[in-house]
Amino acid sequence: MKYIEKESREQLTLLPDCIEDYISENNPVRIIDAFVDSLDMYRLGFLRAVPGETGRPPYDPRDLLKLYIYGYFNRIRSSRRLMLECRRNVELFYLLGKLTPDFRTIADFRKDNGAAIRGVFREFVKLCVKLNMYERELLAVDGSKVRAANSDDNAYNAEILEKKLARIDGHIREYLSQLDRQDQDALEESEMTAEQIRSAISTLRERKERYEGYLAELGESGETQLLTTDPEARRMHSKDGFHCCYNVQTAVDSGSHLIAEYEVTNRNTDQGLLCRVVTGAKENLGTEVIETVADKGYESREDILNCVMNGIIPTVALKYDKYERLFQIPYEDVTITQDMRSSTRPDDIQACISAGILPDCYTGSNIEVAVQRKTELSCFIRDENGAVTCPTGETLSLVKTKGSNSIYANKDACRQCQTRCVSGKWFKRVSFGPHTKVVPTWVYGTPEKPLTKIPDDIPANPYNHTLNRTDYSKPKKVVVRIRMDKEKLKKRMCLSEHPFGTVKWWHGAHYVLCKGIEKATAELGLSFLAYNLRRAINIVGTERLIEAMRG
């Protein structure tokens, strides 16, 4: 029996093979081709979207974009490797029509079209929304560190530079002492020659001058770090130590596990990024109100309250509180109509909450809004040992002295207090004079347990002798409660960790090749687009995707 016979390399054919025949109907290359052809390259801002009338003809940006999407889809990020694939890959013969751009042309396209490539990611998100792949009910937000194109040795701060300068001065003094010993004919055999010593001193002085320039640059810029290879990256703490990184944020849909939005920052922590990321995801998904879940790294009371005021229902793991978050908001006497209450516009949501009314879009969520009034008169008491207790029995600590007065406070107790005695968001600070034992105060809300009563031998003073004197004219305040939801917090880990694991360790994007936030944003946008593309194929299939792109 013979083997299956193959064609001879020297065999001539009358009609050459068609490249179309090599690409199956469900090949992802067809989706990439249809998707890029459906884009408006000029509106997205790609360079050379319209060819010039004179000069050498450029490559069509559609072809280079197809090449990059194909490369990231198949874990090929290097421009040199993409150039090689253009010369031997049959799928790229089909996709590019046998074009073979140089690696510099390929690399410059990614470098020069950062904002436009991010727009391509958003266009694919909108396409998936059109196909109802996003549930648009719950987003899991998380951040991860991605290594920058900057070595740890080329990262400096003031402390490192000062140590290096001190070490260089010590070496210079040592070399100068060797020159002195040589002049006195006391040179040992193991020591360097005079010419070698002068060369070493010259090198050290050049290095010292460079480090002094870095130190002056830090002082002028006001930054705490200076990275010489990629100045926009930062040295951050990751799970395996301190490295030069970018902090990458993603918002993942709970139903499809598709990435709805991403952002590349050089912030060391995730604090203050929640509202910004989710707001971008809302724009991509075309929804006014959405719920989000995040870990305790996003603990920022200002940012969480900002989410509530802008149509975002936040569920953030508790870092300081125990059962729920309490926010104190000044009461505003505003007439709320039914249209305002049913609206999802941020202005109407803010007006409803400031008036103590829960908007309809938050009904059934973990957010509660209530109006509290000054109901009871209680007091702060200082005992003989100098310990101060508040109306609810919590102990206050001495924070500072001002003249002969002592100022007490307990920030943690005020944060979780259900019946606070201040109308704003700040914690209580109580001032005791040298002979003061009792400081009366009004308490907002209905206490769950009896409050501290004013001693009979102290006259009841309706005014509050504290550092929060503006409370006298505010008989009402609004309290916003956000309850903890353990089930959603457990669900978060299954949602946000998987995309990062896939993109960083399967696609190989645990480090970036480009320098600068904009270029790193483009590079990671291609990785996240490739992730969404593969997941969309698994959800709806090739035919339906191509039909939606051409429809």
Q: What class would the helix/strand composition place it in? A: alpha+beta
Shape: flat
Unreliable stretches (pLDDT < 50, length at least 5) are 460-464
Question: In what range is the share of β-strand residues?
Answer: 15-25%
Helix content class: 25-40%
Distance between the amino and carboxyl termini? 52 Å
- Strand runs, count: 16
What oligomeric state do these chains adopt?
single chain
Provide an overview of this structure:
This protein is of the alpha+beta class. 40% of the residues lie in helices and 19% in strands. The protein has helices at residues 28-37, 41-44, 61-73, 79-88, 90-96, 103-112, 114-130, 158-183, 194-221, 274-285, 301-308, 338-342, 346-354, 411-416, 486-506, 517-540, 542-550, and strands at 138-147, 155-156, 226-227, 234-238, 241-253, 259-265, 290-294, 312-316, 324-330, 367-382, 388-389, 395-402, 405-409, 429-432, 438-444, 476-483. The strands form 3 sheets. Strands 9, 10, 11, 12, 13, 14, 15 and 16 form an 8-stranded antiparallel beta sheet that branches. The relative contact order is 0.13.
